[in-house]
Specification:
globular, about 300 residues, eight-stranded mixed sheet, four-stranded antiparallel sheet, mainly beta, about 5% helix
């Protein structure tokens, strides 16, 4: 995640022509802590493997081979569900028919369990007022919640929501997901950090690139079938990243989920969860009135 609507960190421009020619431009801002929506926050079932190269490309000199194409996808909405408009969404998980959600802002951050169909908050626990909560991941019976600039990861018991312990780390915390082996963490830059799920120690880092350019402002994360899906802060784009190489294999256009009149008093698209049974994704945003069940389809 990152900061707030008038509080934040970086701005990413992704576009087919701009990305290829100019890359990304990042705007450095700091978030307001006045409760404004975090648009200045950092505060986002197809095969994501790029198409095979032609025989000429495979046999030609390496320097002349074209870059593998980035798959361009869009969102197809399947269902809509209510979403609490006081939820400054920083992390989102779907587990056993329920949503687990981390919400941000100082003195307002929470950990929540939410009923999907109604959007009702079944239970919540308040994060200490001095902390700004961020991304969320589940490892076994534990929930791990990042904090933005507080350099703490909070570890809760999944069954009781009781705080068990804290991990310390250096730098900012934005998004977090678990790939079955490592915790994958974003910090609003073009870096993904892979951490030991027990000790939170750094195992490795990878730089993320889109068409050869740094893909900055990586925000909320979801690990799905060998890919890391990331919201791009202040953009309605999601990228699917190869975690071994850091190469973006697909860009998903998620524009237009909310109608223009619904965007008042809301902040950025942020929050990705995945249902392995249906192979559908859930998307929402900070202070959004709706959560969307979607699939990613070719443009």
């Amino acid at each position: 995640m990152g900061p707030v609507s008038s509080s934040g960190s970086a701005f990413l421009i992704i576009g087919a022509s701009v990305a290829a020619a100019a890359g990304y431009v990042a705007l450095n801002r700091l978030p307001n802590e006045d409760g404004n929506a975090r648009s200045a926050e950092r505060g986002t079932a197809a095969d994501n493997t790029a198409p095979e190269q032609s025989s000429n490309e495979r046999t030609g000199p390496p320097a002349r081979r074209r870059k593998r194409e980035v798959e361009r996808l869009r969102v197809r909405v399947i269902r809509r569900y209510p979403h609490a408009t006081d939820a400054f969404t920083q992390g989102l998980l779907f587990e056993q028919g329920k949503l687990l959600e981390s919400t941000g802002l100082r003195a307002q951050s929470t950990l929540r369990e939410v009923e999907l169909a109604s959007g009702n908050v079944l239970r919540r626990t308040a994060v200490p007022d001095n902390l700004f909560a961020e991304g969320l991941a589940q490892v076994g019976g534990d929930l791990i919640q990042l904090t933005w600039q507080d350099e703490q990861a909070l570890v809760y018991d999944r069954a009781t929501f009781q705080l068990k312990k804290r991990h310390r780390y250096e730098g900012e915390g934005w998004g977090l997901c678990y790939d079955g082996k490592d915790l994958v963490m974003s910090d609003g830059t073009d870096q993904l950090t892979f951490r030991d799920p027990d000790s939170f120690a750094v195992r490795r880092r990878v730089s993320v690139t889109l068409e050869g350019q740094p893909a900055r402002d990586l925000n909320e994360l979801e690990c799905v079938r060998g890919r890391v899906y990331a919201n791009i802060w202040q953009r309605e784009d999601i990228v699917a990243i190869d975690p071994q190489t850091g190469i973006v294999r697909a860009v998903i256009d998620a524009r237009g989920l909310l109608k223009p009149e619904q965007r008042h008093h809301t902040d950025v698209l942020n929050g990705i969860a995945y249902d392995p049974k249906t192979k559908h994704f859930f998307l929402t945003g900070k202070l959004w009135p709706t959560l969307f069940e979607v699939e990613f389809v070719p443009e």
